[in-house]
Specification:
It is a single chain. By secondary structure, the protein is of the alpha+beta class. It folds into 2 domains: 98 residues, Serine Threonine Protein Phosphatase 5, Tetratricopeptide repeat (Alpha Horseshoe), CATH 1.25.40.420; 295 residues, 6 Propeller (Neuraminidase). Helices cover 17% and strands 36% of the residues. The chain is built from 8 helices and 26 strands. The chain is globular. It holds the Pfam family Kelch_1. This is BACK domain-containing protein. Keywords: Kelch repeat, Repeat.
């Protein structure tokens, strides 16, 4: 294969590879196939390998140990960039370059993954997936453990589920779903048991916020780095919160509402990971525990929940430029312990409890029209459900092959 073709291939942001380690391995193999002629090309080719996205073990054991890289001064700044990205996770938002962005193959589309939850006296391990283009739900592989009240988030090409409650105890375990394989695998346990937690992901890190450990309400926060497989403690919130929700806006982590074991909260606080300190945000108009939250067009939405007297259908949004909350149209159903996700400028509220029964219904909010519309219901009723949106390539075709 000619050099120009190889360079164009590995430089493409749409290259479809399961992981960046494959790209590095392929480059080194190609160079070694004609070492005399190709060794001089290593620095130029390495510029197109996204070294910061390699796992730390691979970076140290394979890249730094490779003489074709280690012995070339022209490669050292690329290694340094990758090491800084790993060693300074709080600063990742400012360490951006084309090499810190995930590749996005042509044809990837967003799907909603609804994970676990409960109905009647059952706790679910089952997971289902929604295609907003066909308005259709379909089952995917079940989690390894039954979980309700878990934290669910997507990052890169995977869905992550942390903590929750299995019907007997609160959990510190966590697992990851790979849609290409339709398979769940366990990842490193959290440092603390957490159910009823808030969770969000930014700059390649997953943050787990507050929750309940089986004995007390938590203000503590920890984050997971998939590149190292390590959990790290973060600054604690000012308020203990279980059944809070987390949303990401302008690289900041917002923690909304919840219950502190005494009071239902309308308070909101915000963490800028670059600063490492929680700051107060104007409180919501209503107390909301077990609410849903999402961001559309730079506005932060909080939907439904429980104010201590009833499940709510009302919703409100925060304008960070005006620093104020305002009401929006209420949902069709009262919902608490539900989930809210955003796809292509629309919010979706799914599952939860209306005060008397678990729900499988879902509705979509159009911010431009300030209107909720009912869409196809989930296959199962799910209160205390977790959900996340993940971009997938030909998901239905892959599921057909897997079955």
């Amino acid at each position: 294969m000619r050099t120009v073709v190889v360079e164009e291939l590995i430089a493409s942001p749409h290259l479809n590879v399961p992981c960046e380690e494959k790209v590095f391995t392929a480059v080194i193999s190609w160079v070694k196939h004609d070492l005399t002629e190709r060794e001089k090309l290593v620095p130029e080719l390495l510029k197109h390998v996204r070294l910061p996205l390699l796992s730390r073990d691979f970076l140290t054991s394979n890249v730094d140990a490779e003489p074709l890289v280690r012995d070339k001064t022209a490669c050292h700044h690329l290694l340094l960039e990758a090491l800084k990205y790993h060693l300074l996770p709080e600063q990742r938002a400012t360490l951006t370059s084309p090499r810190t962005s995930e590749r996005q193959p042509d044809g990837v589309k967003p799907y909603v993954f609804a994970c676990g939850g409960g109905s009647l006296f059952a706790i679910h391990s089952e997971v289902e997936c929604y295609n907003p283009r066909t308005d259709r739900w379909m089952p995917v592989a079940s989690m390894n453990y039954r979980r309700s009240r878990a934290g669910v988030v997507s990052l890169g090409r995977y869905v992550y589920v942390m903590g929750g409650y299995d019907g007997a105890c609160d959990l510190c375990s966590a697992e990851m779903y790979n849609p290409a394989l339709n398979r769940w695998v366990s990842i490193t346990n959290m440092g603390t048991k957490r159910s009823c937690l808030g969770v969000g992901a930014t700059s390649g890190l997953i943050y787990c916020v507050g929750g309940y450990d089986g004995a007390s309400c938590l203000s503590s926060v920890e984050r997971y780095d998939p590149l190292t497989g390590v959990w790290t403690s973060c600054p604690a919130m000012a308020t203990k919160r279980r059944y809070c929700r987390v949303a990401l806006l302008d690289n900041c982590i917002y923690s909304l509402g919840g219950f502190d074991s005494t009071n239902y909260q309308c308070t909101v606080e915000r963490l800028d990971p670059r600063v490492g300190k929680w700051m107060s945000v104007p409180p919501m108009m209503s107390r909301r525990s077990s609410c849903g939250a999402g961001v559309v067009a730079g506005m932060l939405y909080c939907v439904g929940g429980n104010d201590g007297t009833m499940c709510m259908s009302s919703a409100e949004r925060f304008n960070p430029r005006r620093n104020t909350w305002e009401p929006i149209t209420a949902m069709h159903s009262r919902r608490s312990t539900h989930e809210v996700v955003e796809i292509e400028g629309f919010l979706y509220a799914l599952g939860g409890n209306d005060g008397s029964s678990s729900l499988n219904s879902m509705e979509r909010y159009d911010a431009k029209q300030n209107k909720w519309v009912l869409v196809t219901s989930m296959l199962s009723r799910r209160s205390s459900v977790g959900a996340a949106v993940l971009d997938c390539l030909q998901l239905e075709k892959g599921l057909t092959k897997a079955t």
